[in-house]
Design brief:
Low-confidence stretches: none
Number of domains: 1
Strand content: under 5%
Radius of gyration: 16 Å
Number of helices: 4
């Protein structure tokens, strides 16, 4: 019989899990080549997309974790897990692209953009929690 906390985790986190699956699908398909004017341009379309996707990822999971019962084992570190999972997931996606897909490559600057987006999403949710 499934553990009730597992069912609760899925019930509360389906938006974040769905978003993570969307990121996986979009990271798998071949995208048209975008010309980036400057390698370190943080406002290049590709990097902005990474910021947005991982900010939303962390915001969805932060919101979901905040609705879970404080007694749940998943909610013990409810403010840290979404941020860390965003960074880890962003890294795993880059490794997935680099080692398992022939039509994509891993890019450490994409990983940095993923982490910055995750941090921005986490900070926005923390500010919202403080009613700023």
């Amino acid at each position: 019989m499934p553990d009730p906390s597992e069912k609760s985790f899925l019930l509360h986190n389906w938006p974040g899990i769905s978003w993570a699956l969307l990121i996986l699908v979009l990271s798998t398909i071949t995208t048209p080549s975008l010309e980036v004017p400057d390698f370190f341009d943080l406002f290049a379309p590709d990097k902005v997309a990474h910021f947005i996707f991982y900010a939303v990822y962390v915001m969805l999971f932060t919101r979901s974790f905040s609705t879970m019962s404080p007694a749940s084992r998943w909610s013990r570190n409810r403010s840290v897990i979404p941020l860390l999972s965003g960074a880890v997931y962003g890294g795993l996606i880059e490794l997935y692209q680099g080692f398992l897909l022939s039509n994509r490559t891993a890019d450490w600057t994409d990983f940095v953009a993923n982490c910055i987006g995750a941090l921005i999403g986490w900070m926005l949710m923390r500010l919202k929690a403080l009613n700023v």
